[in-house]
Design goal:
- The chain has 293 residues and is mainly α.
- 71% of the residues lie in helices and 4% in strands.
- The strands form 2 sheets. It has a two-stranded antiparallel sheet.
- Helix 5 (139-161) crosses helix 6 (163-173), helix 5 runs antiparallel to helix 8 and helix 9 (225-232) packs across helix 10 (237-257).
Length: 293
Amino acid sequence: MEKLIQLSLSGIANGAIYALVALGFVLIFKSSDVINFAQGELLMIGAYLTYMTVQQIGLFWPIGVVIAVILAAVVGVLIEQLVLRPLIGEPAISVIMVTIGLSSVLRAIVGAIWGITPLPAPQFLPRDPVNILGATVGMDKLLAIGLALLLFGILTVFFRTSSEGIAMRAVADDQQAALSMGISIKRVWAVAWAIAAVTAAAGGILLMSIFGGVSGTIAHVGLLVFPVVILGGLDSIPGAVVGGIIIGLIEAFAGGYLPPELGMGHVTPFIVLVLILLVRPYGLFGQKLIERV
């Protein structure tokens, strides 16, 4: 029972971080129909920017984190304007290939600035053990869940009440109708990329604090975005949250109960990806589109 609780909380914490990264992926897809294969690199950039502001510059960590998140949003907007906007009207495969190339470019830039050696990161979240029903769980995992839920709540309020959030929902529903109502599609895309970079940066900061270090391998977490968004639905924001939690739990249970030499903890999410594509390719909450020719 203790092991089940411990694995469950650990899986939910990881799943909440996956959901944050997947949320940005879904926002970009809903607003511009772009499948962003560089989402993991945005997570990595957020972590390294936080390392720069806190560890290298020496800012008080709350101030450093805020500045790093703002810089990550600026990076997201620059990517949209300089890389993606010139590709408007181009075939989808061209945009996909550009985002794949963008991921390599971002890795190279990070490697040129900070090197490829793992760096010790400041610990923002306390790691004191907490006893829950006989299971011992780190405080950092519980706080990661709480912070992820807080960010989801803030974004929910943003989408429901702010003019920019309502405009993003309109564009996601029907771009032509939104354009006819005077909504700037380009501005919505820029905001979507900025939010995607912010959510990815938040996930990177949480992972950096939990792992106690930062390196280029943190971008590999972005690979788990694809099982998450395929499971939840490419165009579903609630699906990103549910998919993240499910994938986090599956990964934790597979790693905890199956023989470690099999390495199934890392493989199981992609097995789920293949099964979902075979059985329900539009995901649990995705919109089922039927085209008649």
